[in-house]
Amino acid sequence: MAIPNITRRETHPTHPGEMLRDDFMPDFDLSATAMATALGVSRQTINELLREHRAVSPIMALRLSRLFGNSPEFWLNAQHAWDLWDSEQRFHNELSEIQPLNAA
C-alpha cells in the first residue's frame, strides 16, 4: 500500500549559492577568490555557484563541508530540495497530467 506524501512546499527553498553568499561568506569574511582558493577550485566555479547558475555536486559538498565544518549532507540536501522544487515548478503542467495509481 502506498503512503500518501502530497504535502507541497509553498515557498521555494534556498539555493546553496544563496546560503554561501548571504550566510557563510560574511560570517567567515570570505571573498569569492578566497573561497575558491581555500576550496581548490576556480573562481568561475564559485561565481557560478554564488549566482545560482551551478549546482552543488557531491565533490563540492565534500569540499564545503570540510571548509565550514558541517556535513556534506547539509549541502546535498539543500541542493536536492532546491532541484525538486525547481523541477516541480517548471514541469507542473506535465506532472499534473499524470494520474496516480491505486493499489489493487
Overall description:
By secondary structure, this protein is mainly alpha-helical. The chain has a single domain, classed as 434 Repressor (Amino-terminal Domain), CATH 1.10.260. Helix content is 62%, strand content 0%. It has 6 helices and no strands. The protein has helices spanning 16-28, 32-39, 43-50, 58-68, 72-90, 92-96. Helix 2 packs across helix 3 (43-50) and helix 4 (58-68) crosses helix 5. The longest helix is centred in the C-terminal third of the chain and has 19 residues, at 72-90. The radius of gyration is 17 Å and the shape is elongated. The protein starts with 15 loop residues before the first helix and ends in an 8-residue tail after the last helix. The model has no long low-confidence stretch (mean pLDDT 93).
Q: Which structural traits does this protein have?
A:
104 residues; elongated; 434 Repressor (Amino-terminal Domain); 62% helix; 0% strand; mainly alpha
How are the elements arranged and paired?
Elements: H1 16-28, H2 32-39, H3 43-50, H4 58-68, H5 72-90, H6 92-96
Say how many strands there are.
0
Count up the helices. 6
| Proportion of helical residues | 55-70%
Gyration radius from CA atoms, angstroms = 17 Å
Which structural category do the helix and sheet elements fall into? mainly alpha
- What's the overall geometry? elongated
Task: Sum this structure up briefly.
With about 100 residues, the chain is mainly α. It has helices at about 15-30, 30-40, 45-50, 60-70, 70-90, 90-95. The mean pLDDT is about 95.
